[in-house]
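Hi R.,

Here's the chain you asked about this morning:
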Amino acid sequence: MKADFFAAVRGMRPLMAVLFLGVCLSCTEIFEPSIEGAVLVVNAPYPGATSTNYNQTFWWEEVEGALSYQLQIASPGFDSVRVLRLDTVLTVNKITVSLAPGVYEWRLRALNGSSRTPFVTYRLQIDTSALSEQSVELLQPGDDALLKANQAFRWEPLFGTKLYRFQIDTAAFADETQILFEKTTARPS
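And the predicted structure, written out as tokens:
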């Protein structure tokens, strides 16, 4: 087989042979590696965690060869889904999600164009706590964003919250006289 290959290349014109060899040698660039046997390493929340923090950061180690990750969160679990809280595909390895108190099951898998890892599945319990112990997760705009006129601001709704006070200032809220804008709203904008 190898001899036939090289005999075919020798019979080609030089330019054609170079192009042919270039295509054959770059086949590894066309085919991506299988990630089916890769192991997903979860950093947070730890498996079986119980928390009073409504904002949970789901964070895992990147898998070599993965192009994206599918994260699903269901309550109380995937065998008896009452609420599918999240089903998303991410190109990053970290996301913060606001969850109401309750029992959840979450699962994660890595994906590329031709293969995927099996899901890893964990349980998570969120216990009720005081609203003063919580923080609102800003969705838009991102940190250090250059803002434009009529900028939309969006945040994750926080369990137990009826009103949100939204403020913009120029002094990191150290001086009440520097507040440029203030609004109370019943929902995230």
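The mean pLDDT is 83.

Let me know if you need anything else.
M.
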